[in-house]
Amino acid sequence: MLANSRPVLAGLLALILLVPVAGSAAQPVSAPETWPTDGWRTAKPEEQGIDPAALAAVDARVPLETPDLSALLVVRGGELVYERYYGGQEPEEPINTRSVTKSVTATLVGIALAEGALESLDQTVGELIPERIPDGAD
């Protein structure tokens, strides 16, 4: 993988998610009450404020800049707005995600701290969701 391609692609994805469709008013997006489910509801990108041309631009760059990428899915407002597989990957096949889960978890923890859902990094899971911890767990 090209050493500097990850930041470029990450930046493009961030722009896609933050830039509304030209001419539309930016509106906050929230997950519908039906999310999460066993599957994703789908929507057209523009229905969720995402420019389809920006997604096409990212799609064109993926094989050149991130040849090891297996899949790219974009979810906004609880709806799948973009799904593309690369390098022979099929939707039904499991993907070795390696360490990406740690990055996503760290990002979500940062968001939870910023929004006040977490008071500190010293809180335990048992303090956060005591009703989900079995009796006698240590």
From TrEMBL:
UniProt keyword list: Signal
UniProt xrefs under InterPro entries: Beta-lactam-related, Beta-lactam/transpept-like, Diverse_Enzym_Activities
Domain Beta-lactamase-related: 71-131
A Pfam family annotated for this UniProt entry: Beta-lactamase
Domain of life: Bacteria
Signal peptide range: 1-25
PANTHER family in UniProt: BETA-LACTAMASE-RELATED, BETA-LACTAMASE-RELATED DOMAIN-CONTAINING PROTEIN
Protein name, UniProt field: Beta-lactamase-related domain-containing protein
